Structures are given as C-alpha cells and as structure tokens.
Task: inverse folding
C-alpha cells in the first residue's frame, strides 16, 4: 500500500504512560534525533510526584511533551497534534491537551478492563470502542502483544520483554515523522554494552515498531518537518539544569576559582548535583550535606576559604537556608544560591512548576538583608544566567540568588553553545599578604563600588575575625553603636544597588518602546509571553514585551520603560509577586495575571489576556 | 606537618586587640589561655589557623584569637568548618562550640562531621547550661535541674556527649577540664596530632548560671576519688594516694581496693584503640550522688585511624584527572551530539 508524506511546519507530540513505561526515555530519544536533524524544538517533561505511583492510575501518569518545527518556536506547545498513550489513565489525563482532529496512538493492551477500572472509567466503558473519540484520528496498536511476538525467541523473561515496549512506540514515531533510527541504535548499543541480550531486544523492538508503520495498512500518512532556519552555527540540545551545571563549571574556569557545590537532594534541583558530581576532572568539589542548613553552611566555609561556592535547593530548602544567607551577607563573601522553584507552600507540588519564591528571594530573611536576584528565562539561558550570578557574587562580594523553575530545569531546547574564549572573565579581588610594618589589615575597607576584598585564610598577615554580629565599618570589629548599625545597613543596601552599574540596561524583547500595553515577565514564562506577543503584534495589536532577568537590582532604565505604556500586565505562575515589587518601586498600576496550577502558561492564555486588556 | 615557620609566634601574638568579654571568673578564660599557649607549639603557620564558632558564650572565642576566625550562627560551625576544610584541606581548622550549640541546635551537624571525619579539632565547652540567654537548662543538664525555664526541675534526660560521639563513629574522643591547665594542654596537643575529627569535651564552669557544676572533679577534697585520669597502657587507678583501681568483671567495671592486695596487673589496662572499652568508659557517667558510682574519666578515651573526607575528595579528583585528563571546557560546552546550521 502506498504511503503519502505530508509536509508540516510545527508538530507537538505528547508521550504519556505509567511512570514505569519508559515514556521519558522514548521522548528524550526522539528529541535528540529531531535535534540532530536540525529542527527547532522545545520540550516539557511532566512527572508524577511519586517515583512509582500505583501502576495504571491517574496519579501515576508521566508525560513528555515535545514540540519541533521548521519555524522558530518559544514554547513546548499549547496543544498537541499527536497524543501517544500507553494506557487508559494516560488518555484520560491528557485528552484535553489534544487538538480536535489530532492523532491518538493508543496501546490497546492498556485499555483492558483492569486498566480502564484503574483509570476510573465506568464499568463497561472503553473510550476506544464507544465513539467518544470521534473528533480524533485514533490508531490502536497492541504494543504489548507485538513486542512479545517480536521477542518470543529472545529468551528474555516477560518482564524484560515488557520493558522494551517504549522502543516499539519510539520506532513507530520515528517512522511516522520520517526520522532514521541511527541515533537511537547508537544510544541503545552504548547503554546496554554489558548486556547484549537486552541490547538486541531493544534494537529489535525499535525496528519492529518502525517497520510496523511501513507495513501496517492503517497508517497511510507520514509527516515531514523540515529543518528550522535558526541562526547559523553549531547547536546542541540542552536541559535547564544541565545548562546551569555547565555554567557553574564555566564560571569557575573563567574566574580561576575552585568550584565547591554543597547541597542536599531535593526535587527539582538534584540533577545539577548529579551532573556536577561527574565533573571531578574539572576539579569540581561536590558535597552532599546532611541537610539544607549544612549544605549552605559548607558553602559559607568554602567561600571563606576562597572557593566559588554554590548551594542549590527548591523553595522549602531555601526557607531552611534563610539564616545562613543572612550570615553570608554580613560576612560579605561571594555565594550563589540556586532556587529551582516548584509549587509551594510547604511541600506543595514537588514535581510541578511555579514562580512563587520571588518574594522569598527578595525579602525572605530576618533584618534588612538585600540579596541580588537573577532569573533564567529558558533552558539554555540557565547557562548564561548562572554564570552571571557567579560574576556578580565574586565581583561584588555578596550572596546572589539564581532563580529557575521545574519547567525550564527539566525542559530542553537547542543551544548555540559558546566556546570558552567567548565567555567573559570573572575577576576575583583577593587581599594581598602583608609584610611586617604594613598597617593593620582592615577587612571591611571598601572600594568605590563599596566592595570589600576577599581575605582568605593562608594569606600572611590577614588574620581577622568575621561573624554575624554587626560590624564596625572598615575594621570589622563587633559594634553595637546605633549610628554604625544604620550606616552599615545603608552601606550593604547601597552596595547591592550599585550592581545596577554593571548590568545591561533593560531591553524591549519585542514591540515598540512606547504604546498601549506592555507585558512584563520574568523567568520561565518567557516563551509563552513571547509567542503570545508576537501573534498579537502580527494581528495588529499595540503590545510590547519586556522580560526582566535582573530582579534585584533592576536595570536602571526599567522605570522609564514602564512609564512609556498606558497599561502593564504581569503574567506570573504565582499569585502576583513581581507585580507587587513593580507597583511598590515604580508606583505603576501594573495588573497581575496569574496561573497557579503547577503548569506553565499557554501562549493562547496570554494572548487572550492581551486582547481582553486592550479591549477594556 | 612539614611546614616550617618563618617567624615563630608566641601566646602573646595570639591575643587580639579586643577586650575579652566573658564574665569575670568564667572558665572560658582559662581555656583561651591554654589554647593560646599550646597552639604556637604545634608547628602551624599563624595564617593557616582558622577558628570557627557558632553561638553561645564559648563561641565568642574566635574574637580573642589572632588567627582567621568566624563567629557564625547557632549550631552551624561544624557545617561551615566542613566546607572550609573540603575547599582548603591544608588549613588547620578548630571548632569552638558549647553544649547548647553542638548538642542541641547543631546536633545533626555534629554527628555528621564525626562520621565524615574531616581533619578538624572540636572543642566543646560543656557548662551544662545556656549561659548567653541567661540560664536555661541545656541538653547536657542533669535531670531535675532547676533553672529559669524549669522552675519545677527539668524533665529532659541529658545527653552523654562522649557516648553520643562514639555512637557517631568519632575517631577521637577525649575529656578534659578548664581547671586543669596541664591536662587541658596535653589533650589539645593529642587532639591536634590526631588526623580526623578530634572531639574534645571540656568541662567548663559557668560561675554565673551553673557555678560549681564540676567542682567535685576539681576541688582538692573530692578530685582524687571522683576523677580517673586515663593514660595509654596504664592501669585504671584513682583515689586518695592512688588506692583504688578498676577491674573488668566480664563487661562490668568494678572498683577494687588496691590496699588489700589486688595487683595493678589485674586491673583494666587503658587501651585507646579498643572501641568496646571506650564504650564502657564513656558510660562512666553516673551522678556523683549515686552510691558506689564510678569515677569520671578524663583523657583520651578512644582514637582510631580512618580516612579523612577531604583527602578522599581530593583523591577522587586526582584519580579522575589521571583517568580522563584535565577537564576541557570547550568539550563540555559542546557535549556529545551537535548539529550545524549553515
Ligand atoms: S554566662 Fe557563664 S559561660 Fe557565659 S561568660 Fe558568663 S560565666 Fe562564662
């Protein structure tokens, strides 16, 4: 039977199944192949909170969304063209994400009475059989049976055979989108080097899935998404946490400092630890501490000793670190605190994304404790932004917050990576050893930026004491003097404000410099806002987009930009945090637009808000 | 340590220009003095010394030592010192803490530094009270202690600090006291010589809120019968004119009278490397009010040689570099799969 190929520009595909189904792996492999092919892409993995939630249940559904295209894209897609479901629960949980007329590929074995029951379909109801999916193109494949068939002579047990199901699906999807299997075969060969039987089985199943597309009569159409016209250059695919880890190694190299990473495992920040602990040959010292407080404590010690010290956590862990952040601020030593935000408060939604720790980063400490804050806006931007956090910390001798969130931490996109010499250098200023007869060392003497020198143990003649008690300016001795305290509080605040001199001015991402409506975002909402504003401008709406990376201090021209617009909306995945700060600082009537569902905004949601606001 | 000191320094050089602000008569003064006396004898460059403390009376210590110092936050000195030592293994790091700081708010970090065995010295000033906050019972206070926060007597059962540390696999535990300067200096030297986390409990008198807590071990009349000074390879002997000894009856320590013919060779011979015996010694912890109680041991209870965290950390880095070569940032930036858009 002849197959036709349909050329399309932009496809969003969602793989969904039990968290044990290997969905994330199939998604990642398809992503890598499609990246190597040269598409623009954006991914969004969505995990259940439990590692092994009961099989077949709605709570256990894991998803991996991938959008790839021949045009430039900014989000993993609002709505899917293709939904791949391994069982009934996966269908039920994700059907609302599928566009009308979209394609469903269903593993029919996952729709037996048991699975239907677990997915809470009423007895006797099977969505694959009752016409309820009329609006979609449904393809049932008995993946379980076909996999078993394909491996019946492999000598593997039922369980092992079952585990290769994801490869069948992957093979089929590769066929469907005209991609070759080479990259995946290479991956399997590498991964199962030590277990040739399993390696063969996976490759065999992958190929079986691919050929099933070719031979099965039900599938008549394949899709072709051409290469994207991205900026010229060499690209790789990168996830946010991976980018942050590499960014830290790069900052260590460009500052000539040793990277010390002290942390305690917490979702969704832990991948950075996993990544960094593999970079021992870069001299990276990772330290898995006994708790969040010890984690930041260790970094304070390391920083006091002259290392580029970094700790990471998510909201609850950051809360525990609060007192120690205040200490680092009093000591005026460099420290980078990474917050990979997740749904809060308390344990909240550990595997879901949110931007609800901005106020915590800005204000969540006792006393007057200003800390610079920078936020990454996309997976690859985690590299640039964490590097910048290190620069500010070292060059301004202060703790700095780097904010990311579950969405960009686990999401991926193509990255036109830099080479080492394209990266700026970071200049650490150490206090020099003193000779006999030199005047006494003054640990809190400052330069014109109000920055003190880094005086590390082992340097002759610099013996001095620091601590959390208020210091006398210049000498660093304990001081309870009222005037000195006020002076020091103001000095520490001014020191942070001065950072505004060393950061770029705020740019308008898209749109005019003056107009009716400005959409102001920060962090991971970048892609959705950009896509929405682009669309609205194309349709003739008067709207512009500003995305703030430097949240404390703000770029010097931010106020000016804000005052040039009649209306301002601030979309955030929280209950309104940046909006409060903007209103406070610039006295502008900015309007909050919030989504607090543990899910990123869709571009359509923001676009609708833009249109609605302009109509009012 | 093979370092040579260009210019030797003295106890005087270790004094700072800051007024010492402990209450007059506080045991901390004596400890400070002995530390300043002993440190110049250790062969460590002055600029390589770091004193890290938490919060509490004892934690003011770094301000009075002309070395690098950090007066950090409550309970966290151990965690901070761990990071410092991991980043800079060549430094000589000393942690000064108290019973509240180390055993209460910092309890978690204490047990973990012991198990990780960073090569640092911990000086735990135990005064069995919260002094800085003006006299509440501490996790080391005896049961039924009447304080401002326990007017009817504290309900808490106290920690036995050294037993706790031994339980956390500490590689060196010792006890000494503020009022025995010679012993204090000897123990400090031993602690510094030990490679690994050295835990030194120092009985320290808080003459304002818990005066006399340890007088029974320091007063002339009672010291001989109430204390037992441990010496490696020597029998456990104590008492007026060294007239008593301790013998092991199975696992049960019993006091014997040496005047009635028991030979010293029949006694328990102190062996610092014996973990089981160290465990028994740490349990010589009865209240001196108990009839027939055992004397309180002082000296080095236990020492064991085990790899230090920072050494293993550095070794992994060295191994990794020799195996896969020094990291190449360009390669890392590039990753393993790239494509080109022309
Ligand atoms: S309160 Fe007690 S421990 Fe504190 S300084 Fe005074 S006497 Fe010493």
Result:
């Amino acid at each position: 039977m002849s197959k036709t190929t349909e050329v399309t520009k932009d496809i969003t595909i969602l793989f969904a199944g039990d968290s044990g189904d290997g969905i994330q792996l199939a998604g990642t492999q398809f992503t890598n192949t499609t990246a190597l092919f040269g598409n623009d892409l954006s991914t969004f993995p969505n995990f259940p909170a439990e590692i092994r939630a009961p099989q077949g249940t709605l709570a256990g559904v894991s998803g991996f969304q991938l959008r790839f295209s021949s045009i430039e894209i900014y989000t993993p897609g609002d709505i899917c063209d293709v939904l791949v479901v391994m069982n009934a629960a996966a269908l039920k949980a994700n059907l609302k994400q599928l566009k009308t007329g979209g394609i469903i590929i269903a593993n029919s074995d996952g729709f037996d009475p048991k699975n239907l029951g677990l997915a809470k379909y009423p007895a006797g109801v099977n969505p694959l059989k009752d016409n309820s999916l009329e609006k979609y193109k449904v393809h049932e494949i008995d993946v379980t049976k076909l996999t078993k068939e394909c491996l019946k002579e492999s000598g593997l047990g039922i369980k092992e055979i079952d585990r290769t199901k994801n490869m069948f699906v992957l093979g089929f999807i590769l066929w469907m989108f005209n991609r070759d299997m080479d990259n995946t075969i290479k991956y399997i060969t590498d991964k199962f080097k030590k277990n040739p039987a399993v390696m063969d089985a996976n490759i065999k199943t992958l190929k079986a899935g691919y050929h099933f597309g070719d031979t099965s009569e039900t599938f008549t159409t394949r899709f072709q998404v051409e290469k994207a016209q991205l900026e010229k250059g060499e690209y790789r695919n990168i996830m946010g946490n991976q980018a942050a880890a590499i960014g830290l190694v790069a900052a260590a190299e460009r500052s000539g400092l040793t990277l010390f990473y002290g942390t305690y495992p917490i979702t969704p920040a832990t991948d950075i630890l996993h990544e960094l602990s593999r970079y021992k040959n870069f001299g990276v010292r990772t330290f898995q501490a006994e708790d969040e407080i010890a984690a930041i404590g260790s970094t304070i010690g390391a920083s006091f000793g002259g290392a580029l010290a970094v700790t990471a956590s998510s909201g609850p862990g950051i809360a525990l670190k609060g007192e120690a952040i205040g200490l680092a601020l009093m000591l005026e030593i460099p420290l980078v605190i990474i917050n990979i935000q997740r749904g809060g408060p308390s344990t909240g939604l550990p595997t879901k994304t949110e931007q609800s720790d901005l106020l915590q980063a800005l204000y969540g400490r006792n006393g007057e404790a200003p800390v610079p804050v920078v936020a990454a806006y996309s997976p690859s931007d985690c590299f640039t932004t964490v590097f910048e956090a290190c620069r500010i910390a070292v060059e301004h001798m202060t703790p700095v917050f780097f904010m990311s969130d579950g969405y960009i931490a686990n999401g991926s996109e193509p990255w036109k990576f830099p080479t080492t010499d394209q990266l700026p250098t970071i200049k650490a200023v150490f206090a020099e050893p003193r000779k006999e007869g030199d005047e006494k060392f003054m640990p809190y003497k400052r330069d014109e930026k109000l920055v003190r020198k880094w005086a590390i143990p082992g340097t002759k003649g610099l013996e001095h004491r620091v601590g959390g008690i208020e210091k006398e300016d210049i000498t660093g001795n304990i001081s309870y003097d009222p005037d000195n305290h006020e002076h020091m509080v103001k000095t520490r605040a001014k020191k942070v404000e001065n950072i505004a001199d060393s950061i770029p001015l705020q740019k308008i991402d898209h749109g005019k410099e003056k107009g009716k409506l400005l959409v102001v975002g920060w962090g991971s909402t970048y892609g959705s806002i950009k896509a929405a504003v682009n669309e609205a401008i194309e349709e003739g709406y008067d709207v512009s987009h500003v995305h703030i990376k430097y949240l404390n201090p703000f770029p010097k021209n931010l106020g000016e930009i804000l005052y040039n617009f009649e209306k301002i909306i601030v979309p955030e995945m929280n209950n309104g945090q940046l909006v409060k700060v903007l209103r406070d600082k610039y006295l502008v009537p900015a309007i909050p637009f919030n989504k607090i569902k543990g899910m990123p905004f869709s571009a359509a949601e923001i676009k609708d808000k833009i249109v609605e606001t302009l109509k009012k | 340590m093979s370092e040579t000191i260009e210019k030797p320094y003295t106890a005087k050089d270790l004094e700072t220009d800051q007024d010492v602000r402990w209450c007059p008569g506080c045991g901390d003064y004596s400890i400070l003095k002995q530390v300043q006396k002993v440190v110049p004898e250790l062969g460590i460059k002055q600029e390589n010394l770091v004193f890290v403390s938490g919060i509490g009376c004892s934690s003011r210590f770094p301000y009075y030592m002309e070395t690098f110092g950090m007066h950090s936050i409550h309970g966290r000195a151990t965690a901070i010192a761990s990071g410092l030592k991991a980043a800079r293994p060549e430094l000589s790091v000393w942690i000064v803490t108290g019973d509240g700081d180390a055993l209460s708010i910092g309890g978690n970090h204490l047990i973990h530094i012991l198990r990780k065995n960073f090569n640092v010295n911990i000086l735990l000033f135990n005064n069995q009270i919260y002094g800085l906050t003006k006299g509440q019972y501490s996790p080391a206070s005896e049961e039924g202690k009447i304080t401002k926060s326990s007017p009817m007597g504290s309900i808490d059962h106290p920690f036995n600090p050294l037993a706790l540390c031994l339980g956390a696999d500490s590689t060196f535990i010792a006890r000494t006291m503020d009022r025995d300067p010679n012993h204090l200096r000897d123990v400090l030297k031993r602690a510094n010589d030990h490679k690994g986390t050295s835990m030194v409990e120092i009985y320290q008198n808080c003459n304002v809120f818990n005066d006399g807590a340890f007088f029974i071990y320091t007063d002339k009349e009672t010291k001989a019968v109430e204390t037992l000074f441990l010496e490696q390879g020597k029998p456990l002997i104590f008492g007026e004119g060294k007239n008593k000894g301790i013998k092991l009856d199975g696992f049960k320590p019993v006091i014997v009278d040496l005047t009635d013919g028991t030979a010293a060779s029949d006694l328990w011979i102190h062996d610092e490397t014996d973990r089981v015996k160290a465990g028994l010694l740490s349990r010589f912890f009865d209240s001196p009010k108990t009839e027939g109680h055992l004397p309180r041991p002082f000296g080095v209870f236990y020492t064991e040689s085990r790899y230090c965290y920072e050494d293993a950390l550095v070794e992994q880095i060295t191994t990794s570099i020799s195996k896969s070569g020094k990291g190449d940032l360009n390669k890392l930036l590039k990753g393993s799969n790239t494509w080109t858009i022309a």
Observations:
- Chain A touches chain B through 74 residues (CB under 8 Å).
